[in-house]
Amino acid sequence: MSAVAPALTVHRVEVLDRHRLLLAGRGAGELVLEGPDGARATVAAVPAVDGGDAEALVDLGALAPGAWTVGAELEPAARLPGAAIVPTPGGLRRVRVRRGDDGALRLDLRAAGPHAELAHVALHDGAVTVEVEADGERLVARRRDGAEEVAADAEPAGPGRVAARLELAPLRPAGVWDLYLDDRRIGRHLDDLPGKRDALAYPVLPAGDLEARPYLTVEDNLSIRVAPAGTAPALPGLSIGRVSLRRRLLRPLALAVHHAAVRLLPALAGRERDGDDHQVRILLTHAWGMGGTIRTTLNLAEHLAARYDVELLSLVRRRDEPFFALPPGVTVDAVDDRREPPRSRLARLAARLPSVLMHPDDFVFADATLLTDIRLARRLRGLRGGALIATRPAFALLVARLAPRDVVTIAQEHMNFRAHRPGLARQARRVFHRLDALAVLTEGDRADYEAMLAGTATEVVRIPNAVPRLHGGVAALDAPVVVAAGRLNSQKGFDLLIAAWRRVAERHPDWQLRIYGRGSERAALQRLIFEAGLQERVLLMGATRRLGEALERASIFALSSRFEGFGMVLVEAMSRGVPVVSFDCPRGPSEIVSDGVDGLLVPAEDVDGLADALCALIEDPARRRAMGRAALDKAARYDAAAIGREWEALLDDLLGRRHAIF
Length: 662
Description:
- With about 650 residues, the chain is α/β, with parallel strands linked by helices.
- It folds into 4 domains: about 10-105, no CATH class; about 115-230, no CATH class; about 250-460, Rossmann fold (3-Layer(aba) Sandwich), CATH 3.40.50; about 480-640, Glycogen Phosphorylase B (Rossmann fold), CATH 3.40.50.
- The chain has 16 helices and 34 strands.
- The strands form 4 sheets. Strands 11, 12, 13, 14, 15, 16, 17, 18, 19, 20 and 21 form an 11-stranded mixed sheet that branches.
- Helix 9 (about 495-505) runs parallel beside helix 10 (about 520-530) and helix 12 packs across helix 15 (about 620-635).
- The chain is globular and about 85 Å long.
C-alpha cells in the first residue's frame, strides 16, 4: 500500500444495488485503491446528502479480479457486509469485504462459479417447485456437510426456462441442502436487489417428521434448511387494537403516580435569568434512532443552525452510531445515555423504576425511567432564555410545566389531533395554554387546536415538515415495482396493503411490492405474506438510509396508513417524481395529494379501492408519467429553505416578544 494518507475513516460498508460498494464514514478527498499487478483506482469521498458522514461509492465492475487494499482507515467496530455476488461486465463476481491482519480494509474479488438464475419458487405441502431461467436436466439438492444428494427431473417451463418439483421428505439427515441445476448453483443474482436473505423469505414446510425452509443465502443462492419438526418459531398474529393485560392493570396506577408527580413540578420550575435569544433547543426521543419524526427534526435543526445556536436534547441514547447522519453545526446531547450502566447504586435503582413525569398514554413513557425524569428535570430547570421545541405531547406537557418563564416554549405536533389517547388529550386541553406556540402540520389540525385553545395566548401555526434531501434521481416509472415505507406497526396499515396486493398480484403477477422499514409487526406481516402466498411478490426490505434510491427504482408509491400526522413520505416519493396511491386517512394525505393530478386518493381502509387504484396506474403508463411530473411540482412546495423560513419567522417573533418582556 502506498503512503497516501487515508481520505476516509470508515464505520459502515454496504453493497448497493447490483454493483456498487458504499464506504461511509468521516473525511473527504480522494480514496485510493491498490490491486493486483500494481493496478490502482481512485474514488472521490464526498459529503453525504444528509450531512455529517462522507461517502465513497466504488464501482465493483470497474475493478479487476483479485485482492484490493482500500486507502481508508477502518474503525474497530465498523460494520462489514457478508460475501455477495454482483454482476459485472466480465460476469458474476464474488465479493468479500474483510479486515486485514493489519487492520486495513480489503476487497477480494473472484469470478463466481457457474450459476442458473432463479426465476420462481412455488411451495406445496411437502414439496417445492423451482423454476430456473436456464436449460438443464436435473434439479439436485446436495447436503452441504455431507455426500448425500436428492435429484428431480427438470421439465421445460417456457423459452429458456425449466422447472422441477423436489419432494422434501427425502432430504435427510437434517442440515443445509444447497440447490443446483445439474452442476450450476441456483441463485438470484441478476435483479436489482442484493442481500435478499431477509427480504425474500419463505415459510416452513412439512418434510415427513422434519420441517424444511427454503431460503436465500448471504450470497443470494437458494438453499433449504432441514430441521426437526417444531424447531422453527411460530410467527405471531397482528396486534392491532390489542392492549396487553399488564398495561390494562398498571395504567390506572401509572396515571395516579404521574398526576401526583406533576403537581410537584411548580416547585421545581426554574427562575428567570439572563438568557441567550440565539439558543434553540429541540427535545426529541432518540436522535441516534430511526423514524420520520427523527429525520424531520434533524432536517429542521440543520436549517436553523445557519442562524441560531441549535442543540438537540435526546431523551435517551442507545447506540454509538446514528441511523441518520447528525447535522453539522448542531450540538447533540443525550439526557440519559444508556450505553453504559449508571455508576451509583441509587442511579441504578432509579434506572429500573418507571417514569413518573412522562404521561403513561404517550408511547415515550416506555422509553423513560425515573432516572430519565431526574436528569431531564435538571436539564430543563437549568435552561437560560432562548427557545425550546418539544416534539412529543408528553414532552410538551412537561415543558409547559417546568421550563423557566424566560424560555420560549413551542410544541411541535407530529400526529393528528384525534390520534392521541383520551388521557393524553385531556391533559393537552388543560396544559397547552401555558405554551407560547403550537406548531401543527395540517390545516385541519390548526382548526381543531385553535378551537381547543380559544381565548388563550398560545399561538397555533401550521408549518408542514420540509422534504429532506434524498439520494437518487428522478424515477423513470418503468419498473414493475411499487414501494411503501414506514414503521412496521398497526398505524401504517401494511396489513391492509398486503390484503390489497393479493388482488393486484392476481392481475399483475410480474409486479412487486417492496415495503421499507422495521418495527414490532414485522413477523406478523411476514405471516400474512406467507398465508397469501405472496412471498416473492411482497418483500419486507428492512430499514434503509437510502430511501431516495429505492424510490428512484419505483413506479408507484403506496400509503396505507390508518392515520397520519402528515405523511411526509408522500412528499419524499413525489420529490423523486413518483405518483402516489394513498388512503384518504386522517390526517395529511388530502392536503398533500391532488386526487387525479399527482396521485390517487382512496377512502380510508378501503382495501378493494386501494387495489383498484394501484391497478389503474399499473395499467396506464402514460397516466403514471403525467402524475409523476405533477408530483415533482408539488414536492417543490415543501422545500427545506421555504419551510425553514416559516420557522425562522415564528422564532424571531416569539423571541422578540420575550426579549421585550425580560
